[in-house]
Design a protein that fits this description.
The chain has 172 residues and is mainly alpha-helical. The protein has one domain. The protein has five helices and no strands. The termini are far apart.
Length: 172
């Protein structure tokens, strides 16, 4: 009997929260950049929010499962769609906040939260009946590393542009 996809996703998210928590602890002990630590804590909060939503949907699903004539597959599909819609709504809300944000730091925090929720949404689609959670966790970590590398690449380009601009100003 296969587990509900949201239960699988919740387990993956909880494992990711544990991994990030360990990362925060190590980063704190080694006195890494405080902004990095804050970003990881924000990511944990976003992931905890998604697990609360999943729990809420699953609790409602238990109540709905008591109805006669409703198949388990149909309930699972409805739950998955409900969760997907909630994530899309939250992402849209954050994108509006992003457009209205004034500081670079605020924008970075919002982009990180959007990336986290989009990553969760991607994992929801990657979970197949009978699929193994380890593969999904690997995909999650790879996706997160890709997003982080992409952000670092953009920051490097900005730094290089600034260096070039400063160099040009010095020569003039």
């Amino acid at each position: 009997m296969s587990k509900h996809k949201l239960i699988k996703l919740k387990k993956i998210i909880e494992e990711r929260i544990g991994s990030i928590s360990e990362e925060v602890e190590v980063a704190t002990n080694t006195k890494l950049n405080p902004l990095y630590i804050v970003d990881r804590k924000d990511e944990i909060e976003s992931l905890r929010w998604t697990t609360r939503i999943i729990r809420w949907i699953l609790d409602r699903a238990i109540d709905a499962g008591q109805q006669l004539g409703v198949t388990k597959t149909k309930l699972e599909l409805e739950d998955k769609i409900k969760f997907e819609n909630i994530l899309h709504d939250k992402i849209q809300e954050l994108e509006i906040e992003l457009e209205d944000s004034n500081t670079a730091r605020e924008k970075e925090v919002l982009v990180n939260e959007i990336d986290t929720l989009e990553c969760v949404l991607g994992h929801l689609f990657n979970l197949k009946p009978g699929g193994d959670g380890t593969r999904a966790i690997g995909i999650a970590e790879a996706n997160n590393n890709y997003q982080q590398a992409n952000r670092l690449r953009k920051q490097l380009i900005k730094i290089q542009d600034l260096e070039e601009e400063i160099s040009t100003q010095i020569q003039n």
